[in-house]
Amino acid sequence: MSVSKADVIEYLKGITVLELSELIKELEETFGVSAAAPVAVAAAGAAAGEAAAPVEEQTEFAVILTSAGASKIPVFKEVRTITGLGLKEAKEAVDNPPMTVKEGVSKDEANKIKAQLEAVGAVVEIK
Of 22, 25, 17, 15, nearest to 93 (Cα)? Predict the structure, then answer.
């Protein structure tokens, strides 16, 4: 019996963020790969005085919750509003920072989400 992409996506929709994180770690270990974004390395020729290629401006950002602060309940509610997670998943995510709230968003949207979370006492960073 083969599993289609649609089956995998449906399965992933039904698991918690914590379970997804564990699955990613297991896949990385099994296949010897990393899900981390690659880091650009400067060419050795640029150090020798050659003109370096222009650096592209970052257009997509990730909003990361680093701490829920003193009062977690308002943070749970805000994370649920922003992400669409269920209560259990949002609670698990907020209880186990750091947590990527949203990724691949514009700078304006990232700043808006950061402001929403900081307004309820969370500590947030944008990468």
Answer: 17
Cα distance between residue 108 and residue 96, in whole Å: 26
- Per-residue pLDDT tens for 103-117? 888 888 888 888 888
Question: Is the predicted pLDDT of residue 47 greater than 80, yes or no?
Answer: no
Q: Are 47 and 83 spatial neighbours (Cβ–Cβ below 8 Å)?
A: no
C-alpha span between 112 and 108 (Å, rounded): 6
- List % helix, strand, coil for the chain (3-state, nearest 5): 50, 15, 35
In whole angstroms, what is the distance from residue 34 CA to residue 38 CA?
9
Give the Å distances, CA to CA, from 75 to 64, 110, 112: 13, 16, 15
